[in-house]
């Protein structure tokens, strides 16, 4: 199986497959760098820039949204000229004809948001609003987990005059909006708790490691104290045995017996002598 990182829908480098698939993003996101993902519906990669921070279910996320360079075709950035796929139209509309099997399809943000004024002047009723019509992705910056996603695109058809058909003979060249749609996904509260636990995991791990280390040190000190106390009591017992001889109480007891016996026999002896003399 051979893998390629270049598509055939646009000339290089516009045909490069850059960024993630849109479901997961690298961790440790920054505000300055922005994010990039590949859209299979557009057959190209899109770059989003940081706009602001948002709190979703108690989790702070970085919000990245589309900008005027998202559908630029070289007007603002010459490196985007390879997205023209033929004749370059004003900036803000992407030609996806090669991606959609030759159908004359053009994609933009709803109501031609961030597109050239040329498109809005061709159609009445265009009222672009960034809060309603922009594409954005809100990520948890440390893990790269999407918290809130809104994909908003508008499908346009290029109308051209056809000389051989009287009905379309006088039709002006116009990018006519057909439909715009929104795909929205927001993390649930139960999943948000799991994300919070994942964010608290490193902190909990550090606290537990410090507690285990402190507990190990405390146990080591306690056992050292027990060993020192046991050795000290053993030395005191040996010294007491050496200072108090075993024979001393026996001599004292013999003296006591001897004295008491003498005291008891002496009167009898004297009495006996006295009786003999008499």
UniProtKB/TrEMBL annotation:
<keyword id="KW-1133">Transmembrane helix</keyword>
<keyword id="KW-0812">Transmembrane</keyword>
<dbReference type="GO" id="GO:0005737">
    <property type="term" value="C:cytoplasm"/>
</dbReference>
<dbReference type="Pfam" id="PF01130">
    <property type="entry name" value="CD36"/>
</dbReference>
<dbReference type="GO" id="GO:0005044">
    <property type="term" value="F:scavenger receptor activity"/>
</dbReference>
<keyword id="KW-1003">Cell membrane</keyword>
<comment type="similarity">
    <text>Belongs to the CD36 family.</text>
</comment>
<dbReference type="GO" id="GO:0005886">
    <property type="term" value="C:plasma membrane"/>
</dbReference>
<dbReference type="InterPro" id="IPR002159">
    <property type="entry name" value="CD36_fam"/>
</dbReference>
<feature type="transmembrane region" description="Helical">
    <location>
        <begin position="207"/>
        <end position="228"/>
    </location>
</feature>
<keyword id="KW-0472">Membrane</keyword>
<keyword id="KW-0325">Glycoprotein</keyword>
<protein>
    <submittedName>
        <fullName>Protein croquemort-like protein</fullName>
    </submittedName>
</protein>
């Amino acid at each position: 199986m051979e893998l390629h990182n270049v598509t055939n829908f646009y000339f290089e480098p516009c045909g490069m497959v850059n960024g993630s698939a849109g479901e997961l993003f690298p961790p440790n996101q920054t505000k300055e760098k922005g994010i990039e993902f590949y859209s299979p519906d557009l057959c190209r990669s899109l770059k989003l820039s940081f706009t602001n921070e948002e709190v979703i279910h108690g989790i702070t996320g970085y919000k990245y949204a589309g900008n005027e360079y998202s559908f630029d075709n070289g007007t603002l950035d010459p490196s985007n000229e390879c997205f023209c796929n033929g004749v370059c139209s004003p900036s803000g509309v992407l030609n996806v004809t090669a991606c959609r099997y030759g159908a004359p399809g053009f994609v933009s943000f709803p109501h031609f948001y961030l597109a050239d004024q040329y498109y809005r002047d061709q159609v009445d009723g265009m009222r672009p609003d960034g809060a309603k019509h922009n594409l954005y992705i809100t990520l948890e910056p440390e893990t790269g987990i999407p918290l809130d996603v809104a994909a908003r695109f508008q499908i346009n058809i290029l109308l051209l005059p056809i000389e051989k058909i009287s009905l379309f003979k006088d039709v002006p060249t116009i990018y006519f909006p057909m439909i715009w749609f929104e795909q929205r996904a927001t993390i649930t509260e139960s999943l948000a708790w799991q994300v919070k636990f994942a964010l608290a995991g490193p902190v909990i791990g550090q606290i537990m490691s410090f507690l285990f280390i402190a507990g190990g040190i405390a146990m080591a000190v306690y056992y050292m104290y027990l060993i020192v106390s046991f050795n000290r009591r053993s030395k005191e017992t040996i010294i007491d045995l050496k200072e108090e001889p075993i024979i001393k109480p026996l001599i004292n007891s013999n003296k006591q017996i001897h004295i008491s016996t003498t005291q008891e026999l002496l009167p009898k002896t004297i009495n006996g002598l006295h009786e003999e003399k008499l």
